[in-house]
Amino acid sequence: MDTPILIVGSGFAAAAAVVHLVDHGIPCKSLTVVGPGALGAGQAYGCVSPFFRLNVRPDIQRLWPEEPDHFPDWARRHINDPQAQTPLGPFYRRSDFARYIADELQRLPNYDALNHLSHVVTDIRKEQDRWILTTANGPELTAAQVVIASGNPSPQWPGGIDAPKEPSLIQIPWRGDWIHDVDRQSPVCLVGSGLTAMDAIYALHESDHQGPVYVLSPYGLLPPVQLDWKASPAIEWPSVHNARSFIHAMRSVLKHDEWLDQEWQERFEALRVGISGAWQQLPVHERLKLTRRLGWLWSLQRFRASPQTVQAADRMRERGQLNIVRASMVGLSPSRSKQWLVSLSDDESIACRTVINCTGAGRDPLIVKLAARQIIGTLSEGGAPSVNPRQQLLSPDDVAHQDLFLMGASSGLALGDVVGSTSIARQAVRLAQTVTSTQAA
Predict the structure, then answer these.
(1) What fold characterizes domain 2-153+363-440?
(2) Residue 422 is inside which H or E element, if any?
(3) Nearest of 229, 226, 234 to residue 301 by alpha carbon
């Protein structure tokens, strides 16, 4: 099978690529999407649990980057969810955003002509002027141009732990279907303390879980609540050339660490507008230094939680049910009492019936394979791919592939703050501009 443009992946990044390519004049019949599940759902929004909510208000959650009212207008017409409403604004279910994306796809001209194959791409190679794609248990495909938009890879257990496949060991928690299998009286351990952990806390709270819940947090912190901040003009970044000047620029704007202050969040968001451009000014080794030293703090500041999840966590802590353990997981073994013994970095251990991996840490096997075969270059020992602002992947000698593109979180080290729907939608717009300009040339 041969196609002009093939998109690897079927989550939000892939759907955004389709929407903006079509919006820039590429017909649906020229596009092939290869990935399992409903287009646009993916790991982030393909949730079956009603307890998994967006962590931002609807005006911040965008498929059309310059139209903040687009999703809110749709939500008012199509969502009936009283629990979404908070004094800080509505925080809708993740699955509702997937419905919105599906509606937007259906509105595309001749959408039925788009070819969607529910396979997983396992390898890509170049033969003359075509890309050859191998799929798991499926056909071999060829394409003139390939967009890798596979999104967040499935998370692995931390520390290289090889955990057995057991229902009580939840390696990929994002669908939320595990909640019905958790014994209400038993202890639960959440490995990680970011937004995935907050989703799990809210799901346990709303399911009336009675047993203790342990959250492993190396820094002893949960994400702060997302306040009702208002968008303000972008703050212009100065020239930065190392990690120290980057941190100084941020501190000079934020002034203090009161992230539960509305003005602080407004300043932070105004600073974020230009942060990717500032990030790209830095040498790669300075970016890596920042990531190692302050990546955890950036994640807490950047990925703030919905009021519903924060309120659930507060209630569980008040009654002594939720315990924040300042340690990380270093081992896992079965105990005699049909529980799991979670070994911690402080030489302690916790016995739990259910262990949920909330780290979100994983590596895209396709990216790893392309790097190993010297098709693409990398920026770190961890294999972060080298990609330019036109979304073109680079070869090991820094030559841009004119027909191989990358979108999504995997481009973070190269391009900066590209996590979140609006950032990825902006990447989709740039991708569409690059593809159409290349074709015109």
Answers:
(1) FAD/NAD(P)-binding domain (3.50.50)
(2) helix 421-440
(3) 226
CA 428, chain centre distance (Å): 15
Angle formed at CA 419 by CA 228 and CA 89, multiple of 5 degrees: 20
C-alpha distances out from residue 91 to 11, 25, 70, 95, 199, Å: 21, 34, 15, 12, 13
Share of the chain above pLDDT 90, in %: 86
List the structure tokens of 2.
Answer: 């041969």
If phi over 0 gives left and psi between -120 and 50 gives alpha, with beta otherwise, what is residue 170? beta
Give the H/E segment covering residue 104.
Answer: helix 94-106
Taking alpha carbons only, the member of 42, 84, 147, 405 closest to residue 72 is: 84
Nearest of 267, 196, 258 to residue 234 by alpha carbon: 267
Contact 343, 159 (CB under 8 A): no
Q: How far apart are CA 212 and CA 188, in angstroms?
A: 6
Judge whether 429 and 20 are in contact, CB under 8 Å. yes
* Fold assignment, 158-224+304-357: FAD/NAD(P)-binding domain (3.50.50)
> 243-254 vs 262-272: helix axis angle to the nearest 10?
140
Domains 2-153+363-440 and 158-224+304-357 share a fold: yes
Residue-wise pLDDT tens digits, 291-308: 999 988 888 899 999 999
219-229, pLDDT tens digit by residue?
Answer: 999 999 999 99
- The Cα–Cα gap between 132 and 252 comes to 50
pTM for the full predicted model? 0.94
**Residue spans per domain, the chain:** 2-153+363-440, 158-224+304-357, 243-299
Residue 440 binned pLDDT confidence (cut-offs 50, 70, 90): low
Query: Tell me, what's the pLDDT at 335?
Result: 85
- Check residue 88 and report its DSSP letter: T
pLDDT digits (tens, 9 = 90+) for 34-57: 999 999 999 889 999 999 999 999
Asked if the model's pLDDT at residue 399 lies above 70, the reply is yes
Q: Is the dihedral of CA 428, 407, 415, 283 positive or negative?
A: negative
Please tell me the distance from the alpha carbon of residue 56 to that of residue 185, in angstroms, as a whole number: 32
CA torsion, ordered 180, 160, 220, 417, to nearest 10 deg: -90
From residue 172, alpha-carbon distances to 37, 270, 304 in Å are 16, 33, 21
